[in-house]
Design brief:
By secondary structure, this protein is of the alpha/beta class. About 40% of the residues lie in helices and about 25% in strands. The protein is built from nine helices and 17 strands. A hairpin with an 8-residue loop joins strand 6 and strand 7. The structure holds adenosine-5'-diphosphate and magnesium ion (MG). The site of magnesium ion (MG) has 3 residues, from loops. Magnesium ion binds next to loops.
Length: about 325
Amino acid sequence: MKELVVIALGGNAIKQAGEEGTDQQQFINIDIASKQIVKLSQAGYKLVVTHGNGPQAGNLLIQQEEGKSLVPALPLNVVGGMTQGQIGYMFQNRLQNNFSLAGKNVSAVSLVTQVLVDKDDPDFQDPSKPVGPFYTKEEAADLRDNKGYIVKEVKPGVEKSWRRVVPSPEPKDIVEKDAINALIASGVVTIACGGGGIPVKQDGKQIIGIEGVIDKDKTGNVLAQSVNADVLMILTDVENALINYNKPNQEAVGAVTVDEMQKLFDEGHFLGGSMGPKVEAAMRFVRATGKKAIITSLDKAEDALAGKTGTIISA
Ligand code: ADP
Ligand code: MG
């Protein structure tokens, strides 16, 4: 049996820090990621891919803001769906091309995905996730009064120091999980739950889109459990999670048990909003399944699956 690996790709795999995010730049990055994914497929792994969307959603929100006198501005849940379509298309195109170059007839398909969250999630009371452009104090006050946005000063001291914040609820379940499993069963490299999925809440028999952002690593764990994956592999821009991060005694975490990782997590080595949620998602997967989770960089993915590098968390 081929091992099924869920890959959660960081934003860097799509838009590097400092890049504007032109289509050419994004296609170049996605081509590099796609070459690695094709290599893993050729090495015998079945693959499901999920990805971040922070920079893409940020740019689209600017377009909504700037274009709103000409066409209606679309809300965050719709923007989430738009980024899944955009990034999914780019991956389908470059994966298809790279499979062709490798002489393989493998399809890649992306699925617009909704993720159920609890309507009583505590983050709805105190939204924490900054999204979209920076505003001046006056612009922020206007958005608060006229659009009902919750705004916070996130960078005191600069002119545009305010941002909109939205809830970041915990992912509970994937609405389209049966379709995802059907795609996997048919041999398709499946791309799903982009940007953490579009958050929806249950309202009687209906599900309703929410203006919020789910952490893509946490959704990666729910996805990996939903497809019964053998490995959850979180790919970012560092080869290992590090203890004493950015200090002279910084050190890579290699192969560890989930209890050992929990101890390091509790000691505060992994920053919230970046490495923290990756470690949490990885530990949740290992505890729930008894299988392994890996945190490493895109270029080390194959070596890490072979146990040669990366942070590898086992039961
Ligand atoms: P992604 O887009 O892949 O989700 P993030 O920027 O959210 O990437 O998280 C990866 C970053 O986390 C690394 O580039 C590093 O700057 C930061 N980081 C924070 N704490 C640690 C740590 N303890 N070990 C390694 N990286 C860390
Ligand atoms: Mg991140």
